[in-house]
Amino acid sequence: MYIYDSTKKVKLQFIPLEEAKASLYVCGPTVYDDAHLGHAKSALVFDLLTRVLRANGYEVTYARNITDIDDKIIAKAIIEKKTIHEITDFYTDSFHNEMAKLGVKRPDIEPKATENLEAMYDLIQKLLDKGHAYETKEGDVYFDTASDKHYLTLSSRVQEDEDRQERVTSSQLKKHQADFALWKSVKDDTITYQSPFGAGRPGWHLECSAMIEKHLAKPNAKFAVDIHGGGADLLFPHHENEAAQTRCATNHSLAAYWMHNGFVNIDGRKMSKSLNNSFFLKDALKEYDGEVLRYYLLSTHYRSNFNFNEEDLQTAKKRLDKIYRLKKRLFSLATYEERTEFQDALLKALSDDLNISLALALIDAMLSKTNEILDSAGKHKQLKKETMANLGFIESILGFGVKNPYDYFQFGVDEKTKAELERLIILRKQAKKDKNFDLSDKLRDEILSYDVQIMDTPQGTFWEKV
RNA sequence: GGUGCCAUCGCCAAGUGGUAAGGCCGCAGCCUGCAAAGCUGCUAUCCCCAGUUCAAAUCUGGGUGGCACCUCCA
Q1: Which of A184, A290, A305, A459 could, after both became Cys, cross-link A262 (CB 3.0–4.6 A)?
Q2: Is there a single domain that holds both residue A334 and residue A454?
Q3: Counting beta carbons within 10 angstroms of the beta carbon of residue A360, is it exposed (0 to 12), middle (13 to 18) or buried (19 or more)?
Q4: A256: enclosing H helix or E strand
Q5: Listing from the earlier edge strand, what are the strands of the sheet with A21-26?
Q6: Is the Cβ–Cβ distance between A185 and A169 less than 8 Å?
Q7: CA neighbours within 13 Å on the CB side: how many for A379?
Q8: How many domains is chain A partitioned into structurally?
Q9: What per-residue confidence (pLDDT) applies to A165?
Q10: What is the pLDDT of residue A274?
């Protein structure tokens, strides 16, 4: 297994802290709004990573947090006249539902900020005790970046540059401009938490460090977790600050490997709140099967920036369709397990820093070869068995082809339309039997008008949603 | 302004020193009543310039063009 470490900028062989085990922590969503395609991309990438690690025999512990303490959540609650929990519960549920549609498995641990406040207090206290943090007279607690000689090494930045660019809005009470808040004192009547440091809210970067310490860190290990992941924009300042907190508060570093996924862009530009060009997952899921989105978003290497557009999405669907057509071709057969060369090659490709393009090329080659042989005369008993095993392997490691193929090809078609299509197909069958091809073609045109295509096979005539 | 990433066929996209994977589209053919699906075949010398090397898309230097981070962001 090889992984590209985005802080060292080099591909490395994965050597776990503990034999045959792997711990993974990924920064999850702040639940104050609907998930967009970028959230989907990140979740999919690390879902794939856990599957590949497991296929390589690692016992994986995968944690992804839910950030449910945040100023934006509070702002939304006030605007919508709801409680914090109504907001966070709603968006946590929708996040889970949408991820399920994408075939993203739930992490083993999904810690919430609200349920880990004690761990955050502990961390702040340790940093204060060790002289890496200080309180201001306003009651805020800041991390003292000057006290950490390794600060900025993770993201390879230069302190002077950061200073020059510091915005004027930051607190005048900080010792150093780069210092960041561990605890933000809040004196108005908005929602606050009572800590040993007074009423307020934890700083942005604190929760991940605290939750990793509580849920994943092993005593006496050199690193708290094997792999820490997240979106490319989190490297600085979020991960830099997380790493500083953990390094200074404990006797270990945060992560042995850092992985950052590239961004999903729309029309060549970053999707962001400020540009108002976010593409929400819930909207995409109305138009496309979740598995199509899964295939599409995973079809480009995870570190590349991804330019979302519907044409490429259609292309991805066509590619996924081919898996399902072969599955349909062998639909009556029982599942079968057998290790094949194809599976070894597929796993090898994915184990090389998730080389998805190579993996997909291997799948396409397997599909073509199998179809070619099935097209030829013969029963092909062994080939069919192996193919069932291969399709099963693709399902488990990539999450492609997990549905009933007939259901897959009928995505978004209502029952009434289905019944009408069946009726037309029966009429067309009779017309063909009567050699009345004018009528048969007329019926086909009518069928096609429902935005489906039909295909005559030895097993009968089937339709597929376009 | 600082830092970093990227530039491969019409489109998407692997490959990072040994002579260009794959998919979509297109063209030709097999199959089909005709289609669709499936199959077969065909389709690039890797942004530009200079250099290193027996050998470069792959390394070095210089251009040009795109993007990102430095502020909440996956």
Answers
A1: A305
A2: no
A3: buried
A4: strand A253-261
A5: A59-64, A21-26, A223-231, A253-261
A6: no
A7: 3
A8: 3
A9: 44
A10: 62
| Residue A13 DSSP one-character state | E
Nearest to A111 by CA among A228, A232, A27: A27
Distance in angstroms (rounded) separating the CA atoms of residues A26 and A101: 20
Nucleotides of strand B under 7 angstroms from a protein beta carbon: 1-5, 11-15, 21-25, 32-40, 66-74
In this prediction the ipTM stands at 0.95
Give the residue ranges of chain A where pLDDT is below 50.
161, 164-170
Nucleotide nearest to A372 (CA to C1'): B39
> Each residue of A287-304: pLDDT tens digit?
999 999 999 999 999 999
Q: How far is the CA of A233 from the C1' of B66 (A)?
A: 18
Residue A171 is predicted with a pLDDT of 55
Instruction: Name the residue range of residue A163's domain.
Output: 2-261
Q: Is the CB of A439 under 7 A from strand B?
A: no
Task: Judge if A368 and A335 occupy the same domain.
Answer: yes
Is the CB of residue A268 inside 7 Å of nucleic acid strand B?
yes
Shared domain for A355 and A397, answered yes or no, is yes
